[in-house]
Amino acid sequence: MSDIKTYPVPQQYLEHTLINNAQYESMYQASIDDPENFWAEQARAKIDWEKPWDSVMNVDYKKAHIRWFEGAELNVCYNCVDRHLASKADQTAIIWEGDDPKNDLSITYRELHQKVSRFANLLKSRNVKKGDRVCIYMPMIPEVVYAMLACARIGAIHSVVFGGFSPESLKSRILDSDCQVVITADEGLRGGKTVPLKKNADKALEGCPNVHSVIVVKYTQADIAWQESRDVDYYASMEAMSDDCPCEIMSAEDPLFILYTSGSTGQPKGVLHTSGGYLLYAALTHQYVFDYHDGDVYWCTADAGWITGHSYIVYGPLANGATTLVFEGVPTYPDAGRFWDVVDKHQVNIFYTAPTAIRALMGQGNEFVNRASRSSLRLLGTVGEPINPEAWEWYHQVVGETRCPIVDTWWQTETGGILLTPLPGATQLKPGSATRPFFGIEPALLDSDGKTVEGAGSGALVMARSWPGQMRTVYGDHDRFISTYFSQYPGYYFTGDGARRDEDGYYWITGRMDDVLNVSGHRLGTAEIESALVLHESVAEAAVVGFPHDIKGQGVYAYVTLMSGVDPSDALKQELIKLVNQEIGPIAKPEMIQWSPGLPKTRSGKIMRRILRKIASNELDNLGDTSTLADPSVVEQLIKHRLNQ
Ligand code: WT7
């Protein structure tokens, strides 16, 4: 691919970087040749352990048995907070920037320690113990970080549910992991609008009889319903709590958190991450990928409800003693210059966001960028979906004025941390490529027969060996863990993505190979949306696929077959959109609903989504083999009534 532009490591960068290319190559080789030694060394250097491990790794992909640092003991909260007190008590741990630009806060490591200790005692006062699950349904305020760390401090397992999810989604997540305590706020704020979190939680909890305590941060002071025996006023209770809460000593393999994510079938699954390996991997990747130096101001714009927020707002940066910026707002409020204003206001050095935000801002014109100086910026990053070269170039030229390398980081909820990425001082960049593997990562591409593709070529992206941040199981369903990730290609972890490797060994992600959508960097299962649609009494059947969307990356396209005798109408369309909103949340709303008297099915009744995807994407001359369809004329009908985007 000689016509692809490459960008060498900037000269001024080389003087400042943690590692250059020669160091990357030798460290990478060492991590592959002798992983036990490599990871043991990193673990000793990066983490404070209460007790060392008996074995570094114990992995069997056939049984999906994955263990790291067995026998070792630590506390994750201690590593993220307490151990920094000796040298960094007065350093800012968290900069909070509110939705309203007038609101911000700065929290030192000393203050963080006090808040987290009190919060941990508050949880204990509600009888939360090691191993209990606690659901966190919060806006992006500092208390969401305190809540996560307070759980880690006492060994409770948190399950953060994104504040944009509906009561129905919240309920199913609470029930799946039997959370008995919920932490929420009266309301959240986003883009000048309120989000009724407590009201949503109240609704969800009608179906959750085991929840005995709801800790409520009265943030906006909105009028909310209150159940005296169940609801706990966070601010009032914190005052009475002691600052002293010893850290619970945990095994390296004790669970740290559960985070739900969508798959190609069924309801979202509870991805389980454990303590030692996860923290090591989050901290190490945060340091090297972002070339993090002491004193840097680091900003990841994700929400704490996603894995990016867990690993790269909370655990990675705080384990490294960084200053991490927590942003409550959205990129376009009060206007499309918000990101760059915040960069100037807090002198941000490292900035990490999603391609969908970059594309949206690119469409608003350069004035919003240029009115800010951005001179503090040194490094830019992206995550969550493929970045198109046009958006990459704009980010590089306009936002970073060509002086900031861009790290396009590929990873997943399941991987705990970044697996494919440039290292800013080491890697020559190619716009649109996540480039090369991080230390200890051995990617491979497999063809449709499961054979390894050597050299340049394409295939299913798998990992040939484990890394410390890998998920350990699907909460409560180890069989699902095995069947989803380890059965299609025995001996490998299957990512669900396809990829191409070029002649320089760089990886180019080509997208999901399964029925998972990526809408604005949010992961959605087509099956979940279909289940929501068929709840409507007028709907007989529904099939959902993705279509290319300029800003969101993908949009949701639904083919809906109505019950016989029901007439299609715009009003019905609106009802269906509302239903999806209610069942899952606004991020899952179909952009397009095509009334489809019939769906393309094989003779055995299986819907041929391949064809539906092609029609939705307007790739009509390339439909592939339709001869196995029970009724090929269905396809012509669908094409005739296809909706234009
Ligand atoms: C899926 C994982 C990782 C945190 C955010 C998303 C896609 C992620 C990239 C990238 C191309 C990417 C993949 C992956 N993806 N990063 N840099 N380039 N695609 O986590 O919700 O678990 O989604 O996001 O398809 O499988 P997630």
UniProtKB/TrEMBL annotation:
Protein name: Acetyl-coenzyme A synthetase
Keyword Magnesium in record: yes
Domain spans labelled AMP-dependent synthetase/ligase: 82-465
EC number annotated for this UniProt entry: 6.2.1.1
Gene Ontology MF terms in the entry: acetate-CoA ligase activity; AMP binding; ATP binding; metal ion binding
Keywords, sorted A to Z: Acetylation, ATP-binding, Ligase, Magnesium, Metal-binding, Nucleotide-binding
Binding site for CoA: 190-193, 308, 520
Post-translational modification: Acetylated. Deacetylation by the SIR2-homolog deacetylase activates the enzyme.
Record's function text: Catalyzes the conversion of acetate into acetyl-CoA (AcCoA), an essential intermediate at the junction of anabolic and catabolic pathways. AcsA undergoes a two-step reaction. In the first half reaction, AcsA combines acetate with ATP to form acetyl-adenylate (AcAMP) intermediate. In the second half reaction, it can then transfer the acetyl group from AcAMP to the sulfhydryl group of CoA, forming the product AcCoA.
Co-factor(s): Mg(2+)
GO CC terms: cytosol
Lineage summary: Bacteria, Pseudomonadati, Pseudomonadota, Gammaproteobacteria, Oceanospirillales
Catalytic activity: acetate + ATP + CoA = acetyl-CoA + AMP + diphosphate
Name of the gene: acs
Domain AMP-binding enzyme C-terminal: 528-606
Signal peptide positions on this chain: none
Residues at which Mg(2+) binds: 534, 536, 539
SUPFAM superfamilies tied to this protein: Acetyl-CoA synthetase-like (SSF56801)
Domain Acetyl-coenzyme A synthetase N-terminal: 24-80
Residue ranges that the Swiss-Prot or TrEMBL entry lists as coiled coil: none
Protein's organism: Pleionea litopenaei
Biological process, per Gene Ontology: acetyl-CoA biosynthetic process from acetate
Binding site for ATP: 384-386, 408-413, 497, 512, 523
Superkingdom in the source lineage: Bacteria
Protein family (similarity comment): Belongs to the ATP-dependent AMP-binding enzyme family.
